[in-house]
Backbone:
């Protein structure tokens, strides 16, 4: 092995000079949360970079719901899960059907629908939240999980349709023609040809919708209010209501809440990066 | 409708006979999305615009100092915050384009802020900055013996911190997008420029930037539109405080909503439209090509 030249050492040092601050910047809030989660109450506020007596006690308190703020932890966890999965399934259904109709069946007016969907995608979600809140009241859906599910489907579907349409435009037309020649009905074409070929994009879109719904704070906080109805992020926000909030428990709950989406993200990273970033900004 | 379809003596053939089966399916498959769109986009937006029709709401907004402050804050957030973020992302995309095993590992960690939900991490930052118990002031006290500043109590600092949180969260995403743009540039160009003895600035100026400028500008505009709707960074860090001085338009709309001033909430959103719609139009033109 030959020794690196001075120039190579210099380049490496410069890269490290960028890499180390980037690492620290990225990790600080997450590490801070983690240290809080494993610190006993009295250690948490001393400003130590590592607790003297790391413990999993906080996790046990959260899992056994042994605190006023946590008395509905499991039901809130369940709410988050059910809502995220429902949003994923409904978005997939709505968006796949629409993309198939627009891209493969060339439905009249499909382009206009696509443009309307894109328009919705670009309107900031916080702006739509104000009239959406009122509309859900009119429909009588406030404080009902359906309000959050339908709102999140509304927000997730446009991008999902767009990504799926881009992907289905790439499938050859001859495929549909061959299947139709063989006597396939439209529904069979959809079920037996289209959906299997679109699998990677469908996984990406489903994951996108599930993560979007799991992470959503604003809509959940507006549309749901009862302690046993709300999702985990709203419960986390509610910790701030009291001056003497148990921060170590809040950080522990936040840590537990952050784990599933991070795991899903890394597990499906292959699909996410391929399906989504390529679609996000086409140059 | 049902009558025309079932009546046998009508002169025009029933609708289902005029459309081929695939066309019927096409409409049926598009219907779910259209229903969602009509019920949860068209109706709310129309209703909201109807609520915001009265000029008196705009007068009230104009007279509300919080609105003016929120508009200025939003501009600062977008013009300064987003441009800083995109410049860092452009710089870091060059860093992550280097082929090193440790840089590959770092890029996996670097994506964490984007992969984890924003609520717990924003609250984590909020606690770090707590004047009495937060780790930042604890460390300042430990090393200097002085009390640290009350970070979130100064509107300028608090807004800067909210921008910082926003950058922390979305920097990885934009770096990744710009990185894909950078990796698409042919390597031959750089090799040829090496032969010609170009320095790093000339390489950036004459090779990297020309091939990336469209992508960069698109990303900046898209990020601006989305940041207009960034409710969490401000609301969960400062709550709009101190004294409602750090609101941005998205948190202000929700503030009016919670105060039951729905027409004001809608009016404040309508005021942002002259700024949003041209951006949206531009983005739609780019994406629907």
Residues:
């Amino acid at each position: 092995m030959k020794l690196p030249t001075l120039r190579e050492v210099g380049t490496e040092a410069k890269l490290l000079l960028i890499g180390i601050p980037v690492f620290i910047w990225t990790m600080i809030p997450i590490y801070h949360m983690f240290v809080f989660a494993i610190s006993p109450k009295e250690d948490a506020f001393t400003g130590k970079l590592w607790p003297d007596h790391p413990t999993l006690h906080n996790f046990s308190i959260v899992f056994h719901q042994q605190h006023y703020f946590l008395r509905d932890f499991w039901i809130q966890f369940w709410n988050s899960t059910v809502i995220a999965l429902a949003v994923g399934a409904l978005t997939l259904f709505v968006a796949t059907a629409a993309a198939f109709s627009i891209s493969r069946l060339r439905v009249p007016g499909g382009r206009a629908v696509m443009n309307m969907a894109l328009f919705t995608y670009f309107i900031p979600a916080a702006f739509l939240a104000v009239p959406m809140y009122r509309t859900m009241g009119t429909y009588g859906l406030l404080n009902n999980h359906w309000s959050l599910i339908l709102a999140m489907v509304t927000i997730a579907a446009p991008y999902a349709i767009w990504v799926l349409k881009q992907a289905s435009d790439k499938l050859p037309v001859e495929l549909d023609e061959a299947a139709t020649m063989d006597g396939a009905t439209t529904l069979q074409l959809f079920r037996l040809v289209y959906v299997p070929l679109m699998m990677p994009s469908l996984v990406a879109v489903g994951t996108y919708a599930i993560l979007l719904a799991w992470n959503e704070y604003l809509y959940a906080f507006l549309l749901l209010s009862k302690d046993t109805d709300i999702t985990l992020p709203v419960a986390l926000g509610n910790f701030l209501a009291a001056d003497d909030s148990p921060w170590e428990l809040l950080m522990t709950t936040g840590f537990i809440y952050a784990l599933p989406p991070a795991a899903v993200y890394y597990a499906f990273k292959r699909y996410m990066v391929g399906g989504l970033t390529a679609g996000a900004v086409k140059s | 409708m049902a009558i025309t379809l079932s009546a046998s003596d009508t002169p025009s053939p029933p609708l289902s006979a005029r459309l081929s089966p695939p066309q019927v399916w096409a409409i049926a498959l598009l219907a779910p999305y259209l229903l969602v769109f009509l019920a949860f986009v068209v109706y709310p937006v129309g209703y909201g615009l109807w609520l915001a029709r009265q000029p008196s709401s705009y007068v009230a907004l104009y007279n509300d100092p919080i609105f003016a402050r929120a508009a200025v804050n939003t501009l600062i957030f977008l013009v300064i915050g987003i441009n800083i973020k995109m410049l860092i992302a452009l710089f870091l995309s060059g860093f992550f384009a280097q082929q090193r095993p440790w840089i590959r590992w770092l890029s996996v960690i670097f994506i964490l802020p984007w992969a984890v939900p924003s609520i717990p991490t924003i609250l984590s930052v909020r606690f770090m900055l707590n004047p009495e118990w937060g780790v930042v002031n604890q460390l300042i006290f430990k090393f200097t013996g002085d009390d640290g500043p009350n970070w979130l109590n100064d509107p300028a600092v608090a807004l800067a911190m909210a921008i910082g949180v926003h950058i922390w969260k979305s920097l990885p995403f934009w770096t990744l997008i710009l990185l894909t743009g950078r990796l698409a540039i042919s390597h031959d160009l750089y090799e040829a420029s090496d032969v010609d003895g170009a320095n790093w600035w000339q390489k950036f100026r004459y090779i990297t930037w020309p091939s990336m400028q469209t992508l960069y500008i698109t990303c900046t505009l898209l990020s601006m539109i989305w940041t207009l709707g960034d409710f969490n960074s401000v609301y969960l860090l400062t709550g709009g405080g101190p004294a409602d001085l750090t609101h941005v338009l998205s948190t202000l709309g929700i503030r009016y909503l919670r105060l039951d001033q729905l027409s004001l909430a809608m009016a404040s959103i309508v005021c942002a439209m002259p700024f949003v719609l041209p951006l949206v139009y531009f983005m739609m033109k780019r994406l629907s090509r």
About this structure: The CA atoms of residues 86 and 220 of chain B lie 7 Å apart. Chain B touches chain A through 97 residues (CB under 8 Å).
